[in-house]
Amino acid sequence: MRIKNRPVFWPTVTLAGLVAMSQAHAQNTAVSDSQRSRGDADQTMVVTASRTNATKDDSPQTVRIITKEEIDQQLQISSDSSQVLSNLLPSYSPSRQKMSGSGETLRGRTPLILIDGIPQSNPLRPTGREAHTIDFSMVEQIEVIQGANATNGVGAAGGVINLITKRPEPGSYNQHAEIRVTTPTSELDSDTLSYETNYGVSGNTGDIDYLFSASVERQGLFLDGRGDAVGVDNTQGDLMDSRSYDFLGKVAYWIDDNQRLQLTLNHFDIEGQNNYVSVTGDRANGVVTTSERGTPEGDVPYNRVWTTGLSYDNYDLAGMRLSAQVFYQDYEALFGATNSGTFQDPAIAPVGSFYDQTLATTSKFGTKVSLTKDDLFSDRLTLTGGFDTLFDETEQYLYQSDRTYVPSTEYTDLSPFIQAEFRPIDSLLLSAGARYEYAKLDIGGYQTVAANNGVEVEGGAPSFNETLYNAGVVWKPVDNWSLFANYSEGFVIPDVGRALRGISTPGQSVNSIDNLRPIVTDNVETGVRFENGRLAAELSYYESSSEFGSRLTEIDDVFFLSREETEIKGLEASVDYQFTEQHSGRVAYSRMEGRFDSNEDGSLDSQLSGLDVSPDRLVASWSANWTDELSTFVQANYAFDETFDEEDREFDGYLLMDAALGYKLPVGQVSVGVANLLDEQYVTYYSQSALVNDERYFAGRGRTVTFGYRLDF
């Protein structure tokens, strides 16, 4: 018998886990491979998520390094992690502004989200909440590899988003405190007020580095551009009317100048307050869903995540670099109650009258190990080899009635890989590699819910194996210019939970379910870069295809998994310019389209909807330091109109503008941020184009102003 509200236990690391630990110091220090000891001072930015510590300029893929300054600018405007990513990455879907990020994709496919290299994405039962497992005030840098990346394995079909947490500040004892208060400009009262506060200490003493940080946030009622209450998503969960807290702890020990051991713990908890109920809108007549005071059915939706990582680095192991990490994560996601037809059972209550909700739980343990030798053939050849493991156990059950919804499923993934980089001449870099994926599912026999005929499904242990290849080239024919091209294969386990819970035909066996087969994507990208110190520009074109892809379809508010051939094509461009030492600007553009084979005739005859691909988007920003004390930031985000095969999903684009001002006081710094500066009234991209649903026809948030104060001492 399952126990409701069972406590989340403190994750522990066993002695066997210590022996098996893996992954890199580079997950926490973005420095060059030549910086092998704590005494080195030269800082060269590398892409740690690449697993080979390649620099951005040497990457054959589009790479975006989001700095601490950029993150801080965005947090002055919004604390929504999805909104932060969307504002900075035009190929990332516009934020749903909800606790669930289902439908938020990178280049039209689901990205692999990491925290210091630890995967947050749940391969068996993606809940759509992977972007809400850490408070972004804990994040110092974000590495984004756009497009499939074979070296990171399972889940990286759309790319990799590696969230690098804060590092200890130099000195024996440093403190940081910050508070932010947000209110809509149309109404100021206790219901609409939001606030966040965080405090941290860090430093180093002798051979030990440490950092401890905590944050608390309470979000009030959101208002749209007309001053009306934004609709609350009582089922999927909402950021509005929620409270959250996060605790991050890191302790590192330098064994000697070339060896480092670090323990990291992060606990994030967000849950709704159940103070509002949804008032269904009328999509056909342009009436958005709103909220009113009331108590929803069931228990409050929440996300609870414990993430623990232990890493070891040796920067000079017989002339090689060893990076190792072992990690454990305990994840719970409770969804709100609904009387969906899927949950009805005449044996429990009259059909249509019973409210139930689901709880998804995942426990995953894994290791990452890589070994790099970079001085072969007169420093022209670098070889990296590694071995990754992942052991995942996932279950989703009906919380109120204690019924199986998705049976307990164990997943094993074993993945050795090798990557080579060869520079035959100074202007040419060739890279190639292979990764072998062995995946096995272990599923016991189970019975589906009454809505799916309550059929008995025979258990099984299907296994899959796939070898993934990648090859790339970067050519710098003249100073400041580089051309790049890349081929890479991605590997994704489909939404196993949807496939299992949707079975309604008797006599089925897990071993015979074709929808459990992995998704393998073929990805081609080519582009050009220019950088001369003041101007940095990049243009790239990509194609991503899968012969047996995955697509969600929605029927009566229930999502079903469809396996069809899919193809996504896109174009990206960006320009960064440093006008003066005090003024800089950035413009970025993304265009993509997706198609699928709707009738299995070999022709890509239908468009992917907003549930899969993002709209064409243009993002522009300007940063200015007027004096040593005064700084400003302005950004504009324009989503272009989109048409789809279904007229009901046609998207009316919108322009959102934000601005922020910071001023250094004799003690501390104050800031004022304004989101949706023009108070635009709009319906979110997801609500317009991802599904046709009156209940989730949500308006976006109207103009808000955020006042902040921070102090470092």
Give the SSE layout.
Blueprint: H1 15-19, E1 63-66, H2 68-75, H3 81-88, E2 112-115, E3 118-119, E4 139-146, E5 159-165, E6 174-184, E7 194-205, E8 208-219, E9 242-256, E10 259-272, E11 276-279, E12 290-293, E13 302-317, E14 320-334, E15 358-376, E16 381-398, E17 403-425, E18 428-443, E19 446-447, E20 456-457, E21 463-475, E22 481-492, H4 496-501, E23 519-531, E24 535-555, E25 558-578, E26 583-596, E27 606-607, E28 617-625, E29 630-639, E30 654-664, E31 669-675, H5 685-689, E32 704-712
Parallel strand pairs: 2-5
Antiparallel strand pairs: 1-4, 2-3, 4-5, 6-7, 6-32, 7-8, 8-9, 9-10, 10-13, 11-12, 13-14, 14-15, 15-16, 16-17, 17-18, 18-21, 19-20, 21-22, 22-23, 23-24, 24-25, 25-26, 26-27, 26-28, 28-29, 29-30, 30-31, 31-32
Task: Describe this entry's structure for a reader.
- With 713 residues, the chain is mostly beta strands.
- It has helices at 15-19, 68-75, 81-88, 496-501, 685-689, and strands at 63-66, 112-115, 118-119, 139-146, 159-165, 174-184, 194-205, 208-219, 242-256, 259-272, 276-279, 290-293, 302-317, 320-334, 358-376, 381-398, 403-425, 428-443, 446-447, 456-457, 463-475, 481-492, 519-531, 535-555, 558-578, 583-596, 606-607, 617-625, 630-639, 654-664, 669-675, 704-712.
- The strands form four sheets. It has a 22-stranded antiparallel β-barrel. A five-stranded mixed beta sheet has the order 1-4-5-2-3.
- A hairpin with a 2-residue loop joins strand 13 and strand 14.
- It is globular and about 75 Å long.
- The model is unreliable at 1-37 and 39-43 (pLDDT under 50).
